[in-house]
Amino acid sequence: MSNLIKSASLQLRELIIDALGKLVAEGSAPAELIPDFTVEIPADKSHGDFAANTAMVCARTFKMPPRKIAELICSKIDLNGSVFERAEIAGPGFMNFFLSKKWFADVIENVMSENEKYGRTDYGKGRRVLVEFVSANPTGPMHIGNARGGAIGDCLASVLDWAGYHAEREFYVNDAGNQIEKFGKSLSLRYMQLCSVKGQQLIYEYRYDTEKLCTEIYALSGEGQDFEMPEDVYLGTDIIEHAANYYKENIFALENLSEEERRKALVDYALPINIAGLERDLKKYRIVYDNWFKESTVHEKNQTKEVVDKLLESGNAYEQDGAIWFKATDYGMDKDFVLRRTNGLYTYIVPDIAYHYDKLVTRNFDKAVNVLGADHHGYVPRLKAALTALGVDASKLDVVLMQMVRLVRNGETVKLSKRSGKAITLVTLLDEIPIDAARFYFNLREANSQFEFDLDLAVEKSSQNPVFYVQYAHARICSLLANLESEGIEIPENADFTLLNNPREIELIRHIASLPNEIELAAKQYDPAKLTKYAVDLAALFHRFYDGCSVKNAESSQVMNARILLCIAVRQVLKNVLAILKIEQPEKM
Prior knowledge:
Helix content is 51%, strand content 12%. The chain has helices at residues 4-25, 54-62, 66-76, 101-114, 144-162, 178-195, 197-205, 210-219, 237-250, 259-284, 295-300, 303-313, 349-362, 379-389, 426-432, 435-441, 455-458, 466-486, 503-513, 515-524, 529-548, 557-580; strands at 39-40, 50-52, 84-90, 94-99, 128-132, 166-173, 291-294, 317-320, 323-326, 337-340, 367-373, 397-402, 405-409, 412-413, 451-454. The chain is flat and about 95 Å long. The two termini are 32 Å apart. The mean pLDDT is 94.
């Protein structure tokens, strides 16, 4: 696994330090500690492939003008045998360095040799990372926020894997607590409505059309109507459908049971169906989890009680007025918060504390990364404070906070599905737009940025559609190669890549070389959006190269061969990036 940009940067740093050592040895520079300096890639490529601010930061230490220091360094720096061919001094003392033709040739050689592994790095050193994302409430369908969280979380796990981590994906199933109580109450009310005279009439009338039955019952659920519902229940038609399906299979079996027994029976029936639906829908979205962790197991293993007992024993929690409180103020928070209420029930955060303790201590992951909605910003400090009090290194928990998405069609915000009149869910979204477009679009921006999803553009087959634009670059290369072969032009096994010196060729190769760096940076910042940007930029650079540098009618057969293999290298890089994002790489469009 190669990273030629990183190795060139490290080599340049060593060359500069070696030159400074020579200056000190001959007495041209003082024997002082060298201040930290930066080696970077200039935004303006006319300023070189790399630039160093060594002379600028050494001015005070050396007690001489930066440009003089730069001249001294350049007089002693030995570029022979390095990947650099020359150095220049700019302005008051910036040093610019230019890479050799061989370095650019090596980039293509590396892509050709590493193929589907090109871009992988060992940055993560095999450390174990658990990425938890979506974890949608299993009492209903997944919404658009889950669609964005799914794309971000899944691609982030892929990025971490490519950056050398051992990444696992996990879905935390909230199958206990208040939402399940609410789920059971909702199901019970709908079931009993179906057992009523009016419910029986509707069941008979729409016995062959469950969707119509649900729609009719939903329409009669308003205030003062036959099926009026209280405010503290779920009102979606999915609840009616579960109750109706259970009724059709079991008729009045639950009518005379206690409320508690009826709710339990209905939850035991409906919840597994919902969880299986979540798994099915996410697989359609190309997301497959390594683990489905149920909240109920935390309760069954008494892990909630264990963490509260640990906090009490360590003096980080206390009892007051029959409730147990966490000393959050000892950890920089404004006020303490309740762990266990006076009725003996734990607050919602306790199972989460136990769950994260399980991640980082019991299962011993090196890192836990959660992708959560931005509305969790106040919850994260609470969770980290409790983990710290339990002796866990809270820096092992990183949270990616994600802003919601605004769907737009014809320039207007979309709130309802054109088919059902209900809020657009992950499933209805994927009925409208390609999966490739959804996964790419949801990763176009950083997670913490507001995002506008243009439904019209997502299905448009034009260069304005970024995923189409990237996939077209891949297909264009495939078509080029097929056309060359059909004309009897053989695809070469090797070529002299030092012949590629057109500025468009150089820019394209330089961008290819940056992929390992981009993957590392995306892993460091938990930002897979860097790869969608990388892919769009790569496609743009390829189209620019292809439009300005003829392959078939190149200046010579040697240049043609080099350009053919450059195209193949670009195709491989595009394929790798799209594979990370789990987006198809079409050969024809």
